[in-house]
Structure formats: structure tokens, C-alpha cells
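Field: COMPLEX_INPUT
Field: COMPONENT_COUNT = two
Field: RESIDUE_TOTAL = 271
Field: MODE = joint
Values follow.
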Amino acid sequence: MATTTATITLSSSDLLSDELALSTTATLTEAGNSTGVTAAIGLSRVTISDTSETTLFDASAYTDDKAHKIYIKNTSTTATQYLLIKVGGAELGRLYAGDFLFAPWSADTTSTDSDVTATPSASGMTIEYMAFID
Amino acid sequence: MATTTAAITLTSDLLSDNISVSASSTLMKAGTTADGLDQIEYGYIDLPTGDEYDLLATTPTAGKASKLYLKNHSTDETLFISVTQNAQAIGKLYAGDWMFIPADFHDAAADIAITANGGTNQFCYAIFHEGTALATT
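Field: COMPLEX_OUTPUT
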């Protein structure tokens, strides 16, 4: 069985009076069991020439209601440039220059397809993204 | 200014070539490299099955660079929390899973809602933000 892990470390010495030092690792498994995920898409890299909304993950192409995970990074180095990330048309948030996200994704198609899209704030921005598939 | 760093490493032996993806980001306020996110809300919740927990009582200013970290601390692999925003399904965090996302909270309906499934789930969260003023809707 393949082993896939995701580790995050959050640290700060001056956000709080006490030092923030959080690190955790998750082994990515199928929904409801301990079998590792069996597929991956990417790592992909795309430059969007304009500021149009672009679909990174199309829910209809994946099995609904699973334990998929997605990773998206804004590779820009210009502080004011961001990617507006939406899931199923709902605005999740902005990834500013250098920011990344890692999230579960159910690929839900029950009512609205939970497609994951990115809308760049400027033309010519580059996105890296990948998915681990249940 | 506060300096907070988020670093991620993804590894896998799924492919013929090993996957090893790393990224690190300093959590800055929106649109600047001069000032870091300087406020945090942190919690640990026991959530009985079927109950929903709304992550925010107050709403960070819309259009900013707020970040949300969320981890399911349950150890039973069949337990999970469903994560939705404004009734839109995002995904499910099974036991031990975590997520780190930008969180816009652009209006009062855009809070992140957590629902426990399969039994009582324990989860922790941290929201890094730059203000709690409610958005004008």
C-alpha cells in the first residue's frame, strides 16, 4: 500500500506571549478506513494569461463524497497579487503571493458541483496544484 | 510585526518517482510584505455526533488574508467532521486529518460550519486574522 503523508508546521515566536510551535502529520487514507489513497493528480503548474475564473478541479470527474485532498499554491512574488479560491461557487478566500492551501475535498455533486476554481487578480499569474484521490 | 510561518510537506510513494512537495509561507496581511497577521483565535472542541459548530462568532474583515487551520483529533478512522461554508460542502476531515485554507468570511453567512459524524469528534482550530470587524453586506 502506498503511503502518503501531509505535514504542516505553524510557528511564531512573537504572535503570542508564549511561542507558537505546532506540527502535525496526517497519513492520507480512504474514507472511513486505514487504506492509503491510491491516486494522485499533479503536481501541475499553469499560467493564466488573463484574469478569468479557471477550474482546477472538476467535481464531476471524481467520485462524490470521498476523502480527496487538494493542494494549491500561488507562486507569485508580488504581494498584491492573489488568487480568489471558490468551491462550488462559494468564496473560500484569497491566496496571496506565496500562500498555499491544503484541504479535504468531497467532490460533492449533490446540488451544486463543488468545482474548485481560482480567479487571478492579475494576468500572467502562475498556480501550482495537485490532488490526492480516494 | 508578528511573524508567523506555515510550512507544508507532502510526501508519497504512489508513483514510480517519489512525490516530495514543500512550501513555506509567512502569514502576511493582505497585499503587503511589511506587516504580518497579528491576531489569532484558537480552540479545542468536543462535538457530539450530528451537532454543528460555527467556527466564528465574529467575522474577520472581508477580502483579507485570514487563514484557518483545522484538525480532527479523533482516533477512530470511521469518525469525521464535515466542513461546509455557506451550505456549500468543502470536504470531510477524517480522524487525524488537517486542513489549512485561506478564509475570507466575507459576510455573516460565510462562516465555516463543522458537523460531527459517526460519534463525538474532537477537533482544534486556529484562525489567523487581522481584525474582527463585521463586513457590510
